[in-house]
Amino acid sequence: MGRRAERDTVEQLLALARSGRSGTLVVRGEAGIGKTALLEHARNAAGAAFRVETLVGVEAEAQFAFAGLHQLCAPLLSRADALPAPQHSALAVAFGQRAGAAPDRFLVGLATLNLIAEAAEERPILCLVDDAQWLDEASAQVLAFVARRLVAERVAMAFAVRDGPVVRAFAGLPELRLGALSEEEARTLLSAGVHAPLDDGVRDRIIAESRGNPLALVELPLGAPPARLAGGFELPDPASVPHRVEESFRRRSSGLPPATQQLLLVAAAEPTGEVALLWRAAAHLGIAADAAAPAEAAGLLEIDSRVRFRHPLARSAVYGVASPADRRRAHRALASATDPSRDPDRLAWHRARAVLGVDEEVAGEVERLATRARDRGGLAAAAAFLQEAAELSSEPVQRARRALEAAEAKHRAGASEAALSLLGVAAAGPLDVSERARVELLRAHVAFHLRRDPEVPGMLLHAARMLAPLEPALSRETHLHALDAAILNGGDAVGIAEAVRTAPASESPARPVDLLLDGLATALTQGYASGVPQLRHALEAFRDGAYTGPEPDRHDDAWLWLAGRTAVGLLDDELVHALATRNVQRARTAGALATLPTALNLLSITSVLMGRLGRATELAAEAATITQATGGVQLPHAQVILGAWRGDEAATTALTASTAQDSTHPDGSTDAAQAQYALAVLHNGLGNYPAAQEAATSACRSPELALRSSSIPEYVEACARAGTPELAASAVDQLGSRAEASGTRWALGTAACARALTSTGPRAEDLYLEAIEHLESSLMGAYTARAHLVYGEWLRREGRRKDAREQLRTAHGSLSAMGAEAFAARAARELQATGEHPRKRSVQPADTLTPHELHIARLVATGATSREVGAQLFLSPRTIEAHLRSIFAKLGITSRRQLREVSLP
Questions:
Q1: What pLDDT, in 10s, does the model give residues 462-472?
Q2: Distance separating alpha carbons of residues 762 and 489, to the nearest angstrom
Q3: Are 517 and 501 in contact, with CB atoms under 8 Å apart?
Q4: Measured at the alpha carbon of residue 833, what is the angle toward residues 829 and 836, in degrees to the nearest 5?
Q5: What are 152-179's pLDDT values in tens digits?
Q6: Where would you tag: which of 354, 366, 579, 678 has the fewest CB atoms within 10 A of its CB?
Q7: Coil, strand or helix: which one is 20?
Q8: H/E element holding 51?
């Protein structure tokens, strides 16, 4: 009735799917406003042309990991064999169909995306998700991920979400808000729904009190005594129409026979809607089958193939009005009626709700339920069950242990504030020394996560010392966490490094993480040169996967990001590229979408330094897209460095200003120093040398090896070009010392270039030529191009215009091709000063491709199939095909073979 604009929006969504595209719509509004009716309109409008799959969230199901997703996917699982093996396995483990390592929830999301896409090959699919606010967290995250990755699968998804606490997973998806019906529409609906005669004044009052809410218009009169319909209607609180509707359902249920009320309560307490289970529980309570008739006659309940309440408000009304004792009795009956071999999870859940006070046996059952949820990848569900197990525990030792495990699970699930309160429960109980250490360790991690507390390094160090005699390997990792936190926070990294010397000795053979800890501590306490051999050994171990002890992947992968940063600090181009590439490959293979953006950021930054700014843009764009799809926090690191090297003053300045305003990135922190490094690069490119000098001075103060090694060359160039080369003398010496210790072509070339910038006469020229020779043998093309630039500038100032042109021409061509526009413009100005007009780079067809299209084109050009590309980029094959059509049109080609012949930047 009415809702013409809203119906048009739904029909446009369906038309999009019919045309070969995909779309998503989140319908929001208060309870009873018509969200379900709009979804039903979508179902009817889809007709036989669509396959329709439906999921209805149930409040009592919200603790069961992937329960909602299984409801939606169950009819499609016959197609699961078509999925790549890792995706098939992830889905099977998530649904409890097989044992295995807990899958990454976004790998489950990719499997779901491809499962739906496979089914949509036959005909378009419409996925309807009602009451999505009650989905379990894992299902909500997966479905939101799928919705964000849909492009060309012929899939339409519609979610109905009730007003109230924000469901973060759906934030940012296309939204349609349902408002009140117009007065005319309300009158029509009221007349159709109420067959008793209504006084005009009563009708006007009902319409006013219902405030255009369709459910209120239908239900409020049904719950009112006939006398009121004839001449009076109480005036409710105008701000609580859904509450009034719920109260109406409550009044109607309370007037039913006691056996019927008891049956309604059992139905309300059993969220699956299984008819046989309801009657088994009813028999346990001595309720006869005819007790259902009054509830059905009152329009509260319907029992056919499933048990259905008229509206979720009716279910909540029935459950809410019952006494705690009656609720426990209902859950006890349901527990008795549940098959322990077929559904142990539901049995434990009902038994927990049947307990008055504490029960150690039931607490153990709920803890085992938490373990099963965790094994399926439902970390949030596991955390909730562990918390419940702690609350049910009668033994203080068990309560404290379970509270600690619940706190750890809450933190890993992203609920760090909740973890803190559980830590308080754990700390108040009897804990052994190991558990006390875990409490302190978790407090430190939570403090770092929530507010980058400057006390965190000390807190971590304290926890590491407590762990030393108990868990030496974990103690060493905690020492490394403390050291990394001090560096990131801008704290006393040297002091923490000194304390690391008291860490337990590493096991034999030493893990890569042990080698990294020792190397960083040595570099910070005894000097860069002393730490290089140990650090290189550590990084080579990360690169080669040399450690063969138990669970190597869990330890190594967590530290690949730090290993890659450290390789930049050593100015080791080959190790930087190898570690950054491995980090991305490992994350892709594991389907670890939560960590992939971090890995992509590092590889993007590496690509910038290599002079592959186009590739860096693709990687940064992919990281941003995946972060948006997974609901994570956007990482600015690659974007700010990319903007600086591109010479994009507006973007770089905005990103660095945002960092400066963020209280979690105080002066001295790595993020703040990285912003200053970016400004130094930007201003050196633009020729604003005093500004570059100021920014580089700040960046060089960072204790972080990578930032200091990267910032010193920027400082030297800024000083030399600002006319104060004498200020750079100590920096040149420091860079020379680092290059000697490192010994790589990148390091030696960078140091030679720095010496050349602060030298004169033949000595300067020899150093420029030495720098170019070294850098041309390295992977770092951006540094090579800049070496040609500064050499050309020096030659022009020496009056050697012809020689200068050759170097400046090389610099300009390279810098233009890679997209370093500010440095290219600087080279162009110098060329013009020699009397030569630089050639403008001709526009290439590939320049019209978006970063995402360029990434796909590059992969397809290697011979990869659409399915292989889709698996790598976490997209469906049909979406890859749609992007290829756009790529072919822009490039003026018609085949994959022709794509291999196109020059891609």
A1: 999 999 999 99
A2: 45
A3: no
A4: 90
A5: 899 999 999 998 877 788 988 999 999 8
A6: 354
A7: coil
A8: strand 51-56
